[in-house]
Amino acid sequence: MEPHVKAHERRNHRAGLRRAVSLHLLAALVTITLAGCSPQPADSRDTVSRDTKLANAADPSSANANVNVQKTTARSGQSTTETPDTQMQPVSFEQWQTIRAATIPAILVVDLWASWCVPCLERFPEMIRMSREYRNQGVEFVSLSLDDRDDPEGIAFANEFLHKNKPPFANYFLDEDIIDGFEKIGILGIPTVDIYARDGTRAYRLTGDNPNAQFTEEDVENALTTLLAR
What we know:
Order of helices and strands: HHEEEHEHEHEHEEH
Strand content: 15-25%
Oligomer: single chain
CATH superfamily: Glutaredoxin
Number of helices: 7
């Protein structure tokens, strides 16, 4: 009976999470100022707004779009000039866990985003700026897209966005069912920034779940200052 009970509990938990995600999405839709983004089916996205945000966020003349960038190997503290491969690499959740663990003993900043999340697109240039500012201090940045794997247009958009912004760090795409992906990561909405300490434990999770308590780039930098001082 015990395995049956545990399976029943897992199904109830999953159903509860799906209801919570649905309620979170409904709340976002009725909020006057959209602060965070919840998982959306591919046919419900405002592609016009997304295209406009891409054009605004990816100005080739800006400092964030330099072709030659510095990529840091945090464990050695050395930097080399190279053009990054901005194409997203698809990874399963298990592969992502392995990739994340391989960054130890660096401090790791993970930007969780998606092409349909306008606040994510707006924040991304600041992540690029911070990655350059902290690159020689033992801090690594990566991005993990939570785009719907069944939305090839959205994935193509995300790759185009990365190509135009040219982030000097690795970019991954979580190749999971979109609801499963959010469940495995353990979040209801994005943008979210996870920051891991040198021992690989997650020290900070900054989310956009609460429209009345949004995190800022200053919160990210304050967290990094604290971890670097340890």
